[in-house]
Amino acid sequence: MLGFFVEVEMISRFYTNKLVFGNKPHDIEGYNEAISSNELFIPHHRLEKDYTMKELQEMGRYDIVPPEELIWLPISKHHRK
């Protein structure tokens, strides 16, 4: 279980000091909620409600996208099936 928390800590740091799918983290909707929450937030592609990650990659809509196509989500909601 300790490994999970170490991994989560690393994910959190991963998104704070670099571009997120080509965007500054604060340009993505939900940033203020994410930084003020006790829960870990991660970026999510809005188009993933209609397409798989592979389909978005094939369309060139995954790696670099406008901030309007992204949202910060709590990890608990992101991984919910």
What is the helix fraction of residues, given as a range? Answer: 25-40%
End-to-end Cα distance: 22 Å
Note the beta-strand portion: 5-15%
Structural class by SSE content: alpha+beta
Major sheet details:
2 strands, antiparallel
How many helix segments? 4
Strand elements, count? 2
Unreliable segments (pLDDT under 50, ≥5 consecutive)? 1-11
Counting structural domains, the number is 1
Strand order of the largest sheet: 1-2
Short description:
With 81 residues, the protein is an alpha+beta fold. The protein has helices at residues 2-14, 31-36, 53-58, 75-78; strands at residues 41-45, 70-74. The chain has one domain (2-78).
Blueprint (SSEs and pairs):
Elements: H1 2-14, H2 31-36, E1 41-45, H3 53-58, E2 70-74, H4 75-78
Antiparallel strand pairs: 1-2
Give structural attributes:
single chain; 81 residues; alpha+beta; two-stranded antiparallel ribbon; 2 strands; globular; disordered N terminus
Can you put this structure into words, describing what you see?
The protein has four helices and two strands; from the N terminus they run H-H-E-H-E-H. With 81 residues, the protein is an alpha+beta fold. The chain has one domain. The protein has a two-stranded antiparallel sheet with strand order 1-2. The N terminus is likely disordered.
